[in-house]
Write the structure tokens for this entry.
Amino acid sequence: MKNTGMVGKSLALIASLGLGLALGAAPVRAADKAKALEVFKDRKCHDCHGMTAHGIGKPKKAEAAEDEEGTQKEAPDLSTLSPEVMKQADPVAFVSDYLKKKAELNGKKHKKIFKGSSAELKNLAEVMVEETKKKAK
């Protein structure tokens, strides 16, 4: 009888642990907007791009890039991402790859490679995609 009691207690413990893990499991980490905006500034993204919806304007000294025809084209405001980015199968992965010069957008790689950590880049990309989705609603 003692063994049955031990087995029963063990099964109850295992079941409660499993239920606790299922109920108490941490949700997928939500992107941290404050950290992303700090990274945007710290990594000098705002030297070319603005995020005016978040109070980050593009500096006056931002240089416009030339397109194929030699016309000056300003770097876009990144308060919302372009439809070309958002139609990607995984926009977060695409933004990360694009900023690491592993992907092209409209036939071009990003002008500068992102110099921060992988975690910073992932969070920044997640915030930009989440903010774009919110505005689309």
Q: What stands out?
A: The beta strands are 65-66, 72-73. The chain has one domain: 30-136. The first helix runs from residue 2 to 24.
